[in-house]
């Protein structure tokens, strides 16, 4: 592993054996834990007891109607266990290729689900994945800033699975050059703040925002969450009891982090916020947000 990875490990842990285990897991690249959403295949051995019953270990290729992903995504979306039900409307701001949207739909069964993806060439795969998994949703391709203008306080819940430096991909054997470089991390952290600001505007009073990444740098995770808490005083942190084991020990850097040496997949970060205020009627949605439906399963 690179000197930059070692520098990150030194920032994350005092304990040398934990640093070494982290760097070794990244180097080996065999840390993925493949699971299927919606297929009963390889059982649930070794998965946490809170794992939803519609998740099972994958032994071969993912099925046509199931969604194959790394367990880290299931771990991140367990954060949805704490959000108030029923969920009238949910917005997935950075949705392609669709894994988190499939998980959110399974967890929440929202009345209206908008899966947004700003990169046009990624919309096809998003729509295909939602459709084959039978997820009833709508798609759009707006920049988060436009969502903030066209749909202020219009959603009970907003998911921000942010574009990031993707350091955890290494633990799955995916090459990702430069992912520890300070310029990469800083560029991502700044972009994430922009996306978070716009996304916060879409949350209705009493609603929630879930922020997740697949990286480990505190600048993109806990430090961004500290920034968010200061910048948006109308949001408060929400604890996720199921993820207690993975909670940050530093209250200045809130959130939960799964590391690849912990054996539950390549790793990731998640944090949940609640917007203060009472739930009330949601504003009417712009018709442009309902133009591109994906049919669910009957
Ligand atoms: C981590 S991926 C999302 C993965 C997806 N949530 C899933 O579970 O399958 C981040 C997504 O954000 C999109 N993205 C890139 N730049 C963005 C921006 N400035 N604003 C919003 N989304 C962006 C990327 O195209 C990518 O699809």
Tell me what you see in this structure.
With 298 residues, this protein is of the alpha/beta class. The protein has one domain (71-294): Vaccinia Virus protein VP39 (Rossmann fold, 3-Layer(aba) Sandwich). The chain has 8 helices and 12 strands. It has helices at 3-12, 16-28, 71-77, 99-108, 123-132, 144-150, 182-201, 222-231, and strands spanning 34-37, 55-57, 67-70, 89-92, 112-116, 137-140, 155-161, 203-213, 235-238, 256-258, 268-275, 293-294. The strands form 2 sheets. Strands 4, 5, 6, 7, 8, 9, 10, 11 and 12 form a 9-stranded mixed sheet that branches. The protein has a 3-stranded antiparallel sheet with strand order 2-1-3. The chain is globular, with a radius of gyration of 18 Å. 47% of the residues are buried. The model has no long low-confidence stretch (mean pLDDT 96). The structure holds S-adenosylmethionine (SAM). S-adenosylmethionine binds at residues 94-100, 117-119, 122, 144, 161, 163, 191, 195. S-adenosylmethionine is lined by residues 94-100, 117-119, 122, 144, 161, 163, 191, 195.
Count of the domains: 1
Q: What would CATH call the homologous superfamily?
A: Vaccinia Virus protein VP39
Mean pLDDT: 96
Radius of gyration based on Cα positions: 18 Å
Name given to the CATH architecture:
3-Layer(aba) Sandwich
Could you name the CATH class? Alpha Beta
Low-confidence stretches: none
Q: Could you say which structural class the secondary elements and strand pairing correspond to?
A: alpha/beta
Shape: globular
Strand content: 15-25%
**Any idea of the CATH topology?**
Rossmann fold
């Amino acid at each position: 592993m690179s000197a930059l990875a070692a520098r990150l490990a030194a920032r994350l842990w005092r304990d040398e054996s934990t640093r070494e285990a982290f760097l070794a897991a990244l180097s080996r690249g065999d840390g993925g834990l493949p699971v299927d959403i919606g297929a009963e295949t390889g059982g649930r051995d070794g998965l946490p007891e809170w794992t939803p019953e519609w998740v099972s270990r994958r032994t071969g290729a993912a099925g046509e109607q199931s969604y194959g992903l790394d367990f880290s995504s299931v771990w991140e979306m367990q954060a949805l266990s704490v959000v108030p039900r029923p969920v009238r409307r949910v917005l997935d701001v950075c949705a392609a290729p669709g894994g988190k949207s499939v998980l959110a739909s399974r967890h929440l069964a929202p009345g209206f689900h908008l899966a947004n993806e700003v990169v046009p060439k990624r919309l096809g795969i998003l729509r295909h994945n939602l459709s084959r998994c039978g997820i009833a949703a709508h798609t759009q391709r707006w920049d988060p800033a436009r969502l903030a203008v066209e749909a202020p306080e219009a959603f009970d819940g907003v998911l921000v699975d942010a574009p990031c430096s993707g350091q955890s991909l290494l633990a799955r054997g995916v090459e990702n050059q430069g992912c520890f470089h300070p310029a990469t991390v800083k560029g991502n952290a700044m972009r994430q703040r922009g996306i978070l600001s716009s996304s916060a505007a879409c949350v209705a009073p009493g609603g929630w925002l879930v922020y997740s990444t697949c990286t480990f740098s505190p600048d993109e995770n806990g430090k961004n969450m500290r920034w968010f808490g200061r910048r948006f005083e109308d949001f408060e942190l929400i604890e996720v009891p199921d993820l207690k084991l993975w909670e940050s020990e530093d209250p200045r850097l809130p959130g939960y982090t799964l590391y690849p040496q912990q054996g539950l997949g390549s790793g990731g970060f998640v944090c949940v916020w609640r917007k203060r205020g009472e739930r009330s009627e949601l504003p009417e949605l712009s018709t442009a947000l309902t133009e591109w439906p994906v049919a669910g399963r009957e």
